[in-house]
Amino acid sequence: MEFTWDETKREKVIAEHKVDFAKIEDVFDDIFAVYIEDFAHSTDEEIRFNVIGQSISYGLVFIVFTYRGDEEIRFITARKAENWMVNEYEENRKRL
Q: Nearest to residue 18, comparing CAs of 94, 81, 95, 83?
Protein backbone atom coordinates (compact mmCIF):
# COMPACT_ATOMS: atom_id res chain seq x y z
CA MET A 1 0.00 0.00 0.00
CA GLU A 2 1.27 3.46 -0.90
CA PHE A 3 0.57 6.42 1.40
CA THR A 4 0.30 9.89 -0.14
CA TRP A 5 -0.63 13.42 0.89
CA ASP A 6 -0.53 17.03 -0.14
CA GLU A 7 2.76 18.48 1.14
CA THR A 8 1.23 21.87 2.00
CA LYS A 9 -1.46 20.12 4.05
CA ARG A 10 1.19 17.98 5.77
CA GLU A 11 3.04 21.10 6.89
CA LYS A 12 -0.21 22.65 8.15
CA VAL A 13 -1.07 19.50 10.15
CA ILE A 14 2.42 19.44 11.67
CA ALA A 15 2.10 23.10 12.69
CA GLU A 16 -1.46 22.84 14.05
CA HIS A 17 -1.64 19.30 15.45
CA LYS A 18 2.02 18.28 15.86
CA VAL A 19 1.44 15.10 13.83
CA ASP A 20 3.46 14.24 10.71
CA PHE A 21 1.78 12.15 8.00
CA ALA A 22 5.16 10.51 7.30
CA LYS A 23 5.21 9.00 10.80
CA ILE A 24 1.69 7.56 11.12
CA GLU A 25 1.53 4.89 8.42
CA ASP A 26 1.88 2.21 11.10
CA VAL A 27 -1.66 2.97 12.34
CA PHE A 28 -2.88 0.74 9.52
CA ASP A 29 -1.03 -2.21 11.12
CA ASP A 30 -2.92 -1.80 14.42
CA ILE A 31 -5.30 -4.77 14.78
CA PHE A 32 -7.41 -2.80 17.27
CA ALA A 33 -7.83 0.27 15.04
CA VAL A 34 -11.36 1.61 14.67
CA TYR A 35 -12.47 2.47 11.12
CA ILE A 36 -15.45 4.77 10.52
CA GLU A 37 -16.89 5.89 7.20
CA ASP A 38 -17.12 9.69 7.24
CA PHE A 39 -20.52 10.28 5.65
CA ALA A 40 -20.60 13.96 6.67
CA HIS A 41 -17.48 14.86 4.69
CA SER A 42 -17.74 12.42 1.79
CA THR A 43 -18.91 13.39 -1.67
CA ASP A 44 -19.95 11.40 -4.73
CA GLU A 45 -16.38 11.82 -6.01
CA GLU A 46 -14.54 11.01 -2.76
CA ILE A 47 -15.54 8.74 0.11
CA ARG A 48 -13.68 9.63 3.29
CA PHE A 49 -12.86 7.42 6.23
CA ASN A 50 -11.59 7.98 9.77
CA VAL A 51 -9.33 5.67 11.68
CA ILE A 52 -8.41 5.75 15.35
CA GLY A 53 -5.28 3.72 16.01
CA GLN A 54 -1.88 3.42 17.62
CA SER A 55 1.20 5.01 16.10
CA ILE A 56 4.66 4.33 17.47
CA SER A 57 5.59 8.00 17.08
CA TYR A 58 2.49 9.63 18.63
CA GLY A 59 0.45 7.04 20.49
CA LEU A 60 -3.24 7.07 19.71
CA VAL A 61 -4.10 9.21 16.67
CA PHE A 62 -7.12 10.08 14.53
CA ILE A 63 -6.64 10.13 10.77
CA VAL A 64 -8.98 11.23 8.00
CA PHE A 65 -8.13 9.52 4.71
CA THR A 66 -9.46 8.31 1.39
CA TYR A 67 -8.64 5.44 -0.91
CA ARG A 68 -7.29 6.25 -4.36
CA GLY A 69 -7.61 3.04 -6.33
CA ASP A 70 -6.63 -0.28 -4.81
CA GLU A 71 -3.09 0.59 -3.77
CA GLU A 72 -3.13 4.16 -2.44
CA ILE A 73 -4.26 5.70 0.84
CA ARG A 74 -4.28 9.50 0.78
CA PHE A 75 -4.08 11.30 4.11
CA ILE A 76 -6.32 14.34 4.47
CA THR A 77 -5.68 15.32 8.09
CA ALA A 78 -4.56 13.84 11.40
CA ARG A 79 -4.34 14.71 15.06
CA LYS A 80 -3.74 13.13 18.43
CA ALA A 81 -6.81 11.32 19.72
CA GLU A 82 -9.34 13.17 21.86
CA ASN A 83 -10.96 11.58 24.91
CA TRP A 84 -14.00 10.23 23.04
CA MET A 85 -11.65 8.65 20.49
CA VAL A 86 -9.63 6.99 23.22
CA ASN A 87 -12.85 5.60 24.70
CA GLU A 88 -13.97 4.28 21.29
CA TYR A 89 -10.59 2.61 20.77
CA GLU A 90 -10.60 1.00 24.21
CA GLU A 91 -14.14 -0.32 23.69
CA ASN A 92 -13.03 -1.88 20.41
CA ARG A 93 -10.03 -3.52 22.12
CA LYS A 94 -12.38 -5.13 24.66
CA ARG A 95 -14.57 -6.55 21.88
CA LEU A 96 -11.68 -8.22 20.07
A: 81
pTM of the model: 0.93
Q: What is the distance of C-alpha 24 from the center of its chain?
A: 8
**How open is the CA angle 84-73-31, to the nearest 5 degrees?**
50
Residues 41-80 pLDDT 10s: 999 999 999 999 999 999 999 999 999 988 999 999 999 9
- Report CA-CA distances (Å) from 16 to 19, 43, 59, 69, 72: 8, 25, 17, 29, 25
